[in-house]
Amino acid sequence: MTRSEELFSEAVKYIPGGVNSPVRAFGSIGSVPRFIKKGDMASIWDEDDREYIDYIGSWGPMILGHNHPAVLNAVIEYAKQGLSYGAATKIEVEMAKLVCAMVPSIEMVRMVNSGTEAVMSAIRTARGYTGRDKIIKFTGCYHGHSDGLLVKAGSGVMTAGVPDSLGVPKGYTKDTLSAEYNNLESVKAHFERCGEEIAAVIVEPVAANMGTVLPEEGFLQGLRELCTEYGALLIFDEVITGFRLQADGAQGYFGVTPDLTTFGKIIGAGMPVGAYGGRREVMEMVAPVGGVYQAGTLSGNPVAMAAGFAQLSILNSNPDYYVKLNQKGDSFFEGMKDIIKEAGLPWQVNHIGSLGSLFFTGEKVRDYESAKTSDTKAYADYCNYMLDHGIYIAPAQFEAMFISMAHLPAQLEQTLDVMRSYFCR
Ligand code: KE4
């Protein structure tokens, strides 16, 4: 028995599924999760001392790689002063100013502890600001696990959402409308039917929770125009794309300005941080200034702020970092495409900068329906092979690969060689 197997058999007795987040259980690839004990740069080690090249990076936060000295030293320095006060601190002001400097659409920002909390709070703020109840989300986009967002579109896109999880009362999702990604008509239909009731449209500007799906030409701009026309707020959920595609995220990359933006992952550098921010007149709805209540014991925790501030400061210090990271990503994912072509396979590779996904389908993946044509069993076989050959990728087809600044050319080459050995065997 490996140490991971021993630990997993212990874990399942005390933690649901043995994990603190479902995807970590490796359920969809039918194998035992690797229990990770250490990370450094682009590598992680499991409890059996096996090394992997890491393409999850804690699902996005580790854009500088694991254990970056500037982040680690900041955490140690702040932890030595004290872990938490539940009081205002200087580092929170510095962090808020840095986020506002990096993302022009953000005039004010509130820190929370996760992407889920950021999205939940942004939606409450949009509802408070507009006085409206309904929201539109897109099938296949994931915005954390707050009740109103755990929605499966009913048949067709005109049905009010039905809960996608046990324990969510229908009343919590009746105001959540579903539309189809890259399909502006499906959004227009909602606005034409009940536009004056719609508080916000929330979208992943690059979807990365049905695998990576890029917005087609005009999609994001079309959402912007519809929201402006009907007085609804446009919320970009940049929990994954924020500070990844470039300093000002997908909104900068695509040149579309949302009213509110949510962040997570990179903003905390591996510590639990989420944030939501946007136009001052909207954010001043938030308590204690306005009537939208939101609070949190560890919001803006100084040690977490120090970690995030150190990471964002590095990312903000030199735009060349993103140029190099995105070039690295482009050449890696194009290398993947070449291998698939060499092997005469029809699989699809969607990618943008350091984010991408391989879909086991011959269909172009542009929305949830087309993503769902992927062969998840074929993905499971591929994923297990990669894990057995020291490459740590998402244990689920509908996730993304994340490349960091720490991934060395030799490691990317080695990864492509392992892929080639799988697909061209
Ligand atoms: P968290 O509550 O997990 O910090 O963030 C929720 C969230 C919100 N918005 C987007 C676009 C997200 O991708 C996420 C969380 N992403 C998943 C990975 N697909 C987190 C990994 C997990 O659930 O364990």
Automatic annotation (TrEMBL):
Keywords annotated in UniProt: Cytoplasm, Isomerase, Porphyrin biosynthesis, Pyridoxal phosphate
CDD domains per UniProt: OAT_like
NCBIfam families, sorted: hemL (TIGR00713), PRK00062.1 (NF000818)
Record-linked PANTHER family: GLUTAMATE-1-SEMIALDEHYDE 2,1-AMINOMUTASE (PTHR43713), GLUTAMATE-1-SEMIALDEHYDE 2,1-AMINOMUTASE 1, CHLOROPLASTIC-RELATED (PTHR43713:SF3)
Subunit architecture: Homodimer.
UniProt key word DNA-binding: no
Name this protein carries in UniProt: Glutamate-1-semialdehyde 2,1-aminomutase
Organismal lineage: Bacteria, Bacillati, Bacillota, Clostridia, Eubacteriales
Signal sequence coordinates: none
Pfam family, one: Aminotran_3
Any one of the GO BP annotations: protoporphyrinogen IX biosynthetic process
Cofactor list: pyridoxal 5'-phosphate
Gene: hemL
Family: Belongs to the class-III pyridoxal-phosphate-dependent aminotransferase family. HemL subfamily.
Domain of life (superkingdom): Bacteria
Organism name: Candidatus Eubacterium avistercoris
Modified sites of kind N6-(pyridoxal phosphate)lysine: 265
Listed EC numbers: 5.4.3.8
GO cellular component term of the entry, any: cytoplasm
Pathway where this protein functions: Porphyrin-containing compound metabolism; protoporphyrin-IX biosynthesis; 5-aminolevulinate from L-glutamyl-tRNA(Glu): step 2/2
GO molecular-function terms, A-Z: glutamate-1-semialdehyde 2,1-aminomutase activity; pyridoxal phosphate binding; transaminase activity
